[in-house]
Specification:
Length: 240
């Protein structure tokens, strides 16, 4: 089912049942991975986030063909969705498979992974929840694993000491039935695939303050870069 958002400032027009696990794929493309996982795990709910309309429709067509009712797809920007719309500490696993690597240095600020996205991820992940990441791009893999993680410290659940918000764990095993569309193509070309995973620590909660997002920056292409840059600038100014 495609989730239709008429007002991106309101909560998602979809109620997730808190007694059922929720897994989210960022940039889910045409949904090969997530629909396969939904068919194999009917007791779990799945949400794909994808900003390209054609891919959202392909995802939805797959759900209809496969008679899947526990997978939904949302056409929205991922950072925005994590920052504002998902219920706090509700997600068991976030999959980020083959995100655009933006290889040129002048485009690095478009990259999804960074301190702002990671703060939003921790806030939405259930304690112990996982991030699964895969890419064919070696430099991007090093950037994410070495520069982004561990991203920040959070208070432990008693609030008395600081500790890393994520710890690295072994990535999940995935056979061909769980490859994404891009992955199937890359593996077919014999390209190496790099995978990593992290687990969210159970820590003292924090609030995600609203960002000053101008109306022209509302969910669409480039918002990751614009609000990410602005948020970091605001945090730096607040620390002065
Ligand atoms: C390289 S493709 C990979 C698609 C899929 N994960 C796969 O492996 O086949 C990256 C996908 O992420 C989507 N995407 C990129 N940035 C996004 C964002 N900030 N929010 C939502 N979708 C995004 C793109 O539209 C594209 O479909």
């Amino acid at each position: 089912m495609i989730i239709t958002v008429t007002d991106p400032c309101k909560p998602l027009p979809l109620e997730f049942n808190p007694s059922r696990p929720l897994e989210v794929e960022v940039g889910c493309g045409k949904g090969r991975f997530l629909t396969g996982r939904a068919a194999a795990n009917p007791e779990t709910d799945f949400l794909g986030i994808e900003r390209m309309l054609g891919r959202v429709h392909s995802f939805d067509d797959k759900c209809r063909r496969m008679k899947i009712s526990n997978a939904h797809v949302l056409r929205l920007e991922a950072l925005y969705t994590f920052w504002y719309l998902l219920p706090a500490h509700s997600v068991r696993t976030v999959y980020v498979f083959f995100p655009d690597p933006w290889p040129k240095k002048k485009h690095h600020s478009h990259r999804l992974f960074g301190p702002v996205f990671l703060r939003a991820l921790w806030k939405r992940l259930a304690p112990g929840g996982r991030i699964e990441f895969a890419t064919d791009h070696e430099e991007y893999f090093r950037f994410v694993t070495e520069e982004c993680f561990p991203p920040f410290e959070c208070g432990d659940s008693s609030g008395s000491r600081e500790m890393p918000a994520f710890r690295r764990v072994s990535p999940m095993e995935r056979g061909p039935e769980a490859w994404t569309e891009f992955e199937t193509r890359f593996r077919g070309q014999g390209l190496p695939i790099y995978s990593a995973a992290w687990q969210a620590a159970e820590g003292a909660d924090y609030k995600l303050e609203p960002m000053t997002v101008a109306p022209e920056d509302e969910p669409r292409e480039g918002i990751t870069r614009r609000i990410g840059k602005r948020y970091l600038r605001e945090m730096e100014e607040a620390a002065l």
